[in-house]
Write a sequence for this structure.
């Protein structure tokens, strides 16, 4: 069974620039969309097996480290990483079975098609997957069917 | 997570079936009409339709001559809700990435 979610964006920038935005720690501020002043520098080791660690702040009392461990790096078209951080959220020390994020960048004329896919590796039990989703940050955002269909359009 | 939802994700894992779901989101269609855009045989299209039906994503309406398929929106909603936390994490970030790239492009043009 395949359990995936794919978000697609068309970006008005060459894909080299998009790839840089995902992999250059001096540019990754966009990944933090929380509240408050980040105090820890972004760590990023762009090698297979290397870690990306970045601080997230929800409010005064709640902060966590997220990021990933790289599984595949193909400049400037593809980044695959296991989502999470050791001692962070998702916690990779405990959750070696966490979701895998694939960032696929396709070159269009004058722009880039970006597909961000969240997938759960085969062999992860459905109960574990359910736990993963339950620990997600729910804000009860209602989605229209149209948007869902748009998203699932292959 | 239950078997029913398993079936939904299995059904949506295939690009042809996703396209069929998208087509049905625009209105009812017969198996013939669902097969047409994909240059596939009717038996193949029918198999895909059966998978979607088994997942509860579509249903067939009895009609005098043919049985049009329609989308079962509730089932699609359930799949959507299940994925919501991850989408909620990434969507705002991708919005910000778009902004970031706009700034980068503007900087580049300025130099």
């Amino acid at each position: 069974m395949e359990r995936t979610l794919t978000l697609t964006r068309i970006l008005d920038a060459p894909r080299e620039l998009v790839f840089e935005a995902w992999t250059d720690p001096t540019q990754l501020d966009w990944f933090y969309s929380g509240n408050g002043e980040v105090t820890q520098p972004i760590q990023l080791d762009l090698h297979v097996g290397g870690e990306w660690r970045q601080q997230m702040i929800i409010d005064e009392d709640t902060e966590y480290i997220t990021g990933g461990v790289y599984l595949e790096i193909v400049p400037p078209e593809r980044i695959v990483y296991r989502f999470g951080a050791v001692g962070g959220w998702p916690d990779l020390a405990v959750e070696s079975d966490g979701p895998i994020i694939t960032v696929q960048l396709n070159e269009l004329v004058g722009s880039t098609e970006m597909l961000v896919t969240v997938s759960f590796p085969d062999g992860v039990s459905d109960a574990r997957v359910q736990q993963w989703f339950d620990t997600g940050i729910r804000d009860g955002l209602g989605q229209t069917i149209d948007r869902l269909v748009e998203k699932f359009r292959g | 997570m239950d078997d029913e939802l398993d079936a939904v994700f299995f059904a949506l894992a295939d690009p042809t079936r996703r396209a069929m779901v998208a087509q049905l989101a625009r209105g009812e269609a017969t198996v013939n009409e669902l097969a047409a855009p994909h240059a596939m045989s009717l038996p193949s299209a029918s198999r895909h339709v059966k998978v979607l039906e088994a997942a509860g994503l579509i249903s067939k309406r009895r009609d005098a001559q043919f049985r049009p398929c329609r989308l079962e929106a509730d089932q699609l909603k359930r799949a959507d809700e299940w994925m919501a936390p991850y989408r909620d994490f990434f969507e705002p970030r991708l919005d910000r990435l778009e902004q970031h790239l706009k700034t980068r492009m503007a900087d580049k043009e300025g130099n």
Observations:
- DSSP finds three helices and seven strands in chain A.
- The interface with chain B takes residues 1-5, 7, 9, 11-13, 17-18, 21, 27, 29-31, 33, 99, 114, 116, 118, 126-127, 129-130, 133-139, 141, 143, 145-146, 148-150, 152-154 of chain A (CB under 8 Å).
